[in-house]
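Slide 14.
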Amino acid sequence: MRRWVCLLMIAGTIFLAACGGGGREEAAKLTIGIMPDVDSIPFIVAQEKGFFKEQGVTVELVPFKSALERDSAMQGGKLDGAVSDVLAAAFARDGGFDAVVGSLTTGSYKLVAGRNETTATVEALKDKEVALSKNTVIEYLTDRMLAENGLAPGDIRKVVIPQIPVRMEMLTNGKIAAAVLPEPLATVAVKNGARVLAGSEQMGADIGVLVFAARAANGKEGEIRALYRAYDKAVDYIAAQPLESYLELLIAKGGFPDSVRGALVLPAYKKAALPERRDVDAVVKWLYAKNLLKKTYGYEELVDGRYLGRRP
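Slide 15: predicted structure.
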């Protein structure tokens, strides 16, 4: 009898250990949505070079071609976080989905005219078709580029094309006069004959961010901190290594077309940091003015600095 009791106790201990181990393994995993843009490159490098694993966290990167698809997956509970922007974070909060901004990402967006256009300035796009995605970082930056060149949003004909690769294809095929594209697809468009008319760098608009769902933000703080340590290591790696040494994995894992070969120019990546208050406030003001938010949101309502070791 005593022997059976001991065996049952041992079996129970093994079962509980297995369950506890499974819980820890699940908690140590993050699922992050990425886009075909340069913001996502440090995450791809961190995964492929084993930096996430070194920091004790498993990260699954899920590629998306449009912000709508990414945000739907996020709000559907399929993602812990995503390479996103301040606008998406504000939309999520306003729609009742609790999400927070964890840090900036390093991105670049450009307004480019098609190769068949004689247009050499933003002003010359008046009354012409410009492809973008509606109510996104792309439209926000488009409006800012227009304003800085003396045009109002209504001075152009906005053509809504959510999927970024399709937008570039329409531009390349001469179906539209211009488009706003993230890098590296903007550079690919230039390689195919397009011309850059304006860019986000010139405006100093840093609103690309990594957003986390509240359930992950509150339940996986340690894992998110580990993700950022790996991210910073990837930034160091990118700065030290020639692009050719990891270009193929970017094409294979990042959803970039083969045509980025010979055209891809990376930005100067910065280690994880919080967005500036002025940039967040400017985005919220734009959204509220367009009646896209029910209320305005303060910086502290959208940005959470705990993962970088400080509060905003």
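Speaker note: The longest strand covers residues 29-34.
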